[in-house]
Write a structure and sequence with these properties.
- This protein has 750 residues and is mainly alpha-helical.
- The protein is 62% helix and 5% strand.
- It has 33 helices and 9 strands.
- Strands 2-3-1-6 form a 4-stranded antiparallel beta sheet. Strands 7-8-9 form a 3-stranded antiparallel beta sheet, with no helix packed on it.
- Helix 14 (272-284) runs parallel beside helix 16 and helix 18 (358-374) runs antiparallel to helix 19.
- Among the domains are: 2-190, Tetratricopeptide repeat domain (Serine Threonine Protein Phosphatase 5, Tetratricopeptide repeat), CATH 1.25.40.10; 195-305, Tetratricopeptide repeat domain (Serine Threonine Protein Phosphatase 5, Tetratricopeptide repeat); 582-655, RRM (RNA recognition motif) domain (Alpha-Beta Plaits, 2-Layer Sandwich), CATH 3.30.70.
- It comes from Elaeis guineensis var. tenera (Oil palm).
- It holds the Pfam family RRM_1.
- Residues 478-488, 680-700 have a biased composition (Basic and acidic residues).
- It is found in: Nucleus.
Length: 750
């Protein structure tokens, strides 16, 4: 498990104790010692260091026999423990006391006749007391009393009533300063020692404490406090980012930086910024290419919240390779440019245009093309970068302009002009088509000859005129849409009445509904039913200004089975949603599915339904969707995610307005009262004319049938013309009606 995840100090203690109880012999001792070494490297833990010290004292024969090598080994271990945990205000004194006890035990083993060696050992113990008295720790007064008591045992007479009698003046000064430092930090330690504090408050207390320590300016104390914090909150990315940033600014010790960054990325693998800083830190300490490559490959195996983190990693890797190639010169370890090209190629394969923003995509390819031209000295490869991007994203104006900008900056005017000739006639979103034409003219004024300018004007002028005509044709349609929105407000009451009647009809018993579905004489209400059915079902809609071709002839009868099926089609109505707690999402990627939307709003909660709008003929997404929520609180949380990206597209999220839904549905299903009819013409110029009229007029007999064809007529009327609907369908394939909105536009136009 430790190969994949860091273990807590408590788990390390349990593991080592189990191994000690199960193993014996020198080989087992070596393996357990390695376990302790691994454990103390992951998190700061005074109890784990204490267990490690006791294990060596009890199990290492060289230590228990007080051999010079064993004593030296223990002293090195104690010094490492003091460096790691000796400044721990609350628990650090435990290491100091263990160190003093070890040295005092060594003093007892020295022969009384060896006065020189005994004097050295006494001085070593005295130095330990003085060092501990200079460190702000809990219960310093007890340490001072122990020091005076020990000095008395050594024959140094001192006044018991005086705290500092027999203590050197420099030690007294350091001790008083340590007491002041402890008093300044006592409030923070008291807050951290409160067992009833929540994790959130405790984390904030650590941050406040760290801010205080950083203002004091002691890097060693700041490092100890960061180690204490990350031991309690190992997956707090804020702590790791602050810790690594502080080390990069202050200590800059290579081994320490490697250790901290390695632990940070193991605990918070999903934080891309930590991996980027890791690569930069390795580059600062002049790490080898093998180390840098290994960290980079390891980072790509992690999962990040967005593809922006992957892009930053690729760019950081390229930046490092470029810098080292630039300063390598004639060194033997000069890097090959193929490494940069391979990294760019992997980035392009990893990050498709649908997953990153247009600006990021352009930056990546512009950077690649520039390095191919300048560092790789290959202009053909630089052009190949842009040509490959044009195959994927040739509809983006920015891609063409960036390609032209590179050629212009390199002084390749003719190549830039050829790109203008390729793209000036293309259609781009918004005003892009006009912009590329004006850009070409500006380019020829600044770089071309008079003939070049004349040629550009000759080609661009017809194109601009064509765009102007197209724009003029689109303006009436926009005005028509605006006017239809204004007029739709008039029909709101009618729509509400129809909806009430629809709801009441849904509650009718099956027997009554079956009776009402029986064939009846043709009336204007039947025509309304036909229109609603044609718009609601996938039978298509008649386009504006066009006539539908009808079958040639009709037979006289239809089977009862066909009549029942046809009545079901005519009775089907489109489903209405009240949109009371619904979010409307636009600018969706065409690749987005209901599952993507479910995952996108998973952190909001309360999602009850996802409705992705699709084209009725192709089944492809239209880039629009409705997401229903259980209550307004979840809906507000979802709306707060407006402008966030999904599959590389910034979503537009707003609350769905039920009134607008009523207006649209009423516009598509009810009459505007223009008194105009709709005429359908067949191939023999016989027509079926449906008189529109007002709502009251359509309640009368205003259906006029001309000719023998009875396409889209009520069943009773069709039978009266001696021809069944099934037989009419067999004569030819009819054109499908389109959507409600297009049918409404046709009525408004007429």
């Amino acid at each position: 498990m430790n190969e994949r995840f860091p273990l807590s100090p408590k788990m390390w203690q349990e593991w080592t104790k189990d191994e000690i109880s199960l193993s014996e012999g020198l080989e087992a001792f070596t393996e357990i010692e390695k376990l302790y070494e691994r454990g103390v490297q992951e998190y700061l833990s005074v109890p784990l260091w204490y267990d490690y010290i006791n294990f060596l004292q009890e199990s290492d024969q060289s230590v228990s026999q007080c051999s010079p090598s064993g004593i030296s080994k223990m002293r090195n271990l104690f010094e490492r423990a003091l460096t790691a945990a000796g400044l721990h205000i609350v628990k650090g004194s435990k290491i100091w006391e263990a160190y003093r006890e070890f040295e005092q035990a060594i003093l007892l083993t020295i022969d009384d006749n060896n006065n020189e060696e005994k004097a050295k050992q006494v001085q070593r113990i005295r130095a330990l007391f003085h060092r501990q008295l200079s460190v702000p720790l809990v219960d310093l007064r007890s340490t001072l009393m122990d020091c005076k008591s020990w000095e008395g045992e050594q024959g140094n007479v001192n006044d018991i009533n005086s705290d500092f009698d027999g203590i050197p003046s420099n030690v007294i000064t350091s001790h008083q300063k340590a007491i002041e430092m402890y008093n300044a930090r006592k409030q923070y330690e008291d807050q951290l020692s409160n067992p009833d504090t929540s994790d959130t408050d405790r984390l904030q207390q650590f941050k406040n404490y760290l801010k205080f320590e950083e203002s004091s300016g002691d890097p060693a104390r700041v490092q100890i406090l960061y180690e204490r914090a990350v031991a309690e909150f190992p997956i707090s990315s804020d702590l790791w980012l602050g810790y690594t940033s502080y080390l990069d600014r202050t200590l800059k010790v290579p081994d320490l930086l490697k250790s901290v960054y390695s632990r940070a990325t193991r605990n918070c693998t999903w934080v891309g910024e930590l991996w980027v800083r890791y690569l930069l830190s390795l580059e600062r300490i002049h790490a080898s290419e093998e180390e840098l490559s290994a960290v980079f490959e390891q980072s790509l195996q992690c999962r990040f919240p967005s593809f922006k983190e992957y892009l930053d990693l690729f760019l950081t890797r390229v930046d490092g390779l470029r810098r080292r190639m630039s300063i390598a010169g004639a060194k033997e370890d000069e890097l090959d440019y193929a490494l940069i090209r391979d990294t760019f190629q992997r980035a392009v394969e990893y990050l498709s245009p649908q997953l990153v923003s247009c600006d990021d995509l352009l930056h990546l390819h512009a950077y690649w093309a520039r390095l191919e031209a300048n560092l790789g000295k290959d202009m053909l490869a630089a052009r190949g970068v842009w040509e490959n991007l044009l195959k994927k994203s040739g509809s983006l104006l920015e891609v063409w302009l960036s390609y032209i900008e590179m050629e212009t900056a390199m002084g390749h005017i003719n190549e830039a002009r050829s790109i203008y000739k390729r793209c000036y006639s293309k259609r781009f979103p918004g005003t892009g088509s006009e912009d590329i034409c004006h850009s070409w003219l500006r380019f020829e004024r600044e770089y071309g000859t008079l003939d070049d300018l004349d040629l550009a004007v000759k080609k661009v002028t017809p194109r601009l005129q064509e765009l102007m005509i197209f724009k003029t044709q689109q303006e009436p349609k926009k005005e028509l849409m605006l006017s239809s929105k204004r007029e739709s407000s008039v029909s709101t009451n009618t729509q509400k009445k129809r909806k009430i009647s629809k709801m009441s009809s849904d509650k009718q018993p099956p027997a009554k509904r079956k009776k009402e579905n029986a064939p009846k004489p043709a009336e204007a209400s039947d025509v309304d039913q036909i229109r609603a059915t044609g718009n609601a079902n996938d039978t298509g809609a008649v386009d504006k200004g066009e006539v539908a071709t009808l079958p040639k002839a009709a037979e006289t009868t239809a089977t009862n089975k066909e009549a029942v099926g046809n009545s079901k089609i005519m009775d089907s109505k489109p489903k209405f949603y009240n949109d009371q707690c619904t979010a409307f999402i636009s600018n969706l990627s065409l690749e987005a599915s209901e599952k993507h939307l479910q995952e996108f709003f998973s952190d909001c909660g309360g999602v009850t339904a996802v409705r992705l709008l699709r084209d009725k003929f192709t089944g492809k997404s239209r880039g629009l969707a409705y997401v229903d929520f259980s209550d307004d609180e979840h809906l507000a949380t979802a709306i707060a995610k407006n402008k966030q990206k999904l599959l590389g597209r910034k979503l537009s999220i707003a609350r769905s307005d039920p009134k607008q839904s009523h207006k649209r549905s009423s516009t598509g299903s009810s009459s505007k009262g223009h008194g105009q009819g709709v005429r359908f013409r067949n191939d023999r110029n016989r027509s079926v004319e449906v008189s529109e009229g007002t709502f009251e007029e359509r309640r009368g007999n205003n259906v006029k049938l001309m000719g023998k064809n009875t396409f889209a007529a009520p069943r009773a009327v069709a039978k009266s013309h001696g021809r069944s609907i099934k037989e009419a369908k067999m004569d030819g394939e009819t054109e499908k009606l389109k959507s409600n909105d297009e049918f409404r536009d046709m009525l408004l136009k007429k």
